[in-house]
Amino acid sequence: MRRRLSKRLVLVLAVAAVAAGCGTSRTVDVGGGANASRAPAEIEHYGCGSCHTIAGISDANGEIGPNLGGFAGRRYIAGRLANTPSNLITWIRNPQGVDPGNVMPDLGVSPRDARDIAAYLDNH
What dotted CATH number matches 2-121? Predict the structure, then answer.
């Protein structure tokens, strides 16, 4: 009986540990002096909100692309790339290079702006 109870306890603790890691946000350094406070203006400049709903951006209520709320908790970017800061920056700057023919256009996002936007998405 005692052995069965301890196996159950180990199983419950293992499941709880895995569940605790799922969907939690990450704290990341996207590098290069990223500044998430610049991102709302950059998101507006590039017109991201015409296709995406983005938390904290009042005019970003598009329904063509996915809602970007809780982005840091996702496993993949566009179902293609592991959701890492460097992959997010690559996707923002060159989505057609990552997945030719997808709906998201290349918008000419600068490296600095892509880092800022990635930092913003990682925190919203």
Answer: 1.10.760.10
- Specify the pLDDT at position 9: 43
Burial class (CB in 10 A: 0-12, 13-18, 19+), 96: exposed
Helices 111-121, 85-93: inter-axial angle, 10-degree rounding:
130
- Read off the DSSP letter of residue 105: P
Question: Residue written as tokens 């600095």?
Answer: 112
* Mean pLDDT in residue range 55-66: 93
Domain ranges (residues) in the chain = 2-121
Cβ contact 105:95 at 8 Å: yes
State pLDDT tens for residues 87-111.
999 999 999 999 999 999 999 999 9
Axis-axis angle for helices 39-46, 111-121 (nearest 10)? 110
Cβ neighbours, 10 Å, residue 24: 10
pLDDT at 47: 96
